[in-house]
Amino acid sequence: MPVPFSTIRQIALSLDNVEEVSSYGTPGFKVRGALFARFHQDGKSLVVRMSIDKRDDMIATDPETYFITDHYLNYPWILVRIDRIDPVALRDLLRAAHRAVAAEKPKRSTKRHARS
Questions:
Q1: Got the DSSP string for 68-90?
Q2: Residue 3: what pLDDT?
Q3: How many CB atoms lie within 10 A of CB 69?
Q4: What is the per-residue pLDDT across 14-47, written as a single tens digit (0 to 9) for each?
């Protein structure tokens, strides 16, 4: 049975400093301005931030639940089939993604400010 999006939302918004945003036309979640999870446009998957090494291990261990598309091949994201993942595993996955993104240094703005 799929984890309802309301449960995903509840888990994500229970984490510190999370805001719900729109990302590629789907609901997503950011911490300190950085995306850590979003609903995939296929309507059946969640895109979650994760190191490539850990992602590859998870896909090898459970390819029915975790996967990537060619688009994400070189990026630190994993796709999760919400009809396959256990709610406790999903909670742990979202917490780990949140922690990883929150620990990153904020990206420096590339905008140049005019000097007075």
A1: --GGGTTSSEEEEETTTS-HHHH
A2: 85
A3: 12
A4: 999 999 999 989 999 999 999 999 999 999 999 9
Tokens of residue 64, six digits: 């029915």
The set of residues, in sequence order, having a beta carbon less than 8 Å from that of 75 and lying 6+ positions away, is 52
Give the single-character DSSP code of 106: P
Domain boundaries, the chain: 5-103
CA atoms within 13 A on the CB side of 18: 23
Tell me the pLDDT of the chain averaged across its residues: 90
Half-sphere exposure in the Cβ direction for 82 (13 Å, CA): 22
Q: Which residues of the chain have pLDDT under 70?
A: 1, 105-116
Domain 5-103 has CATH 3.90.1150.30: yes
Q: Indicate the helix (H) or strand (E) that contains 98.
A: helix 87-103
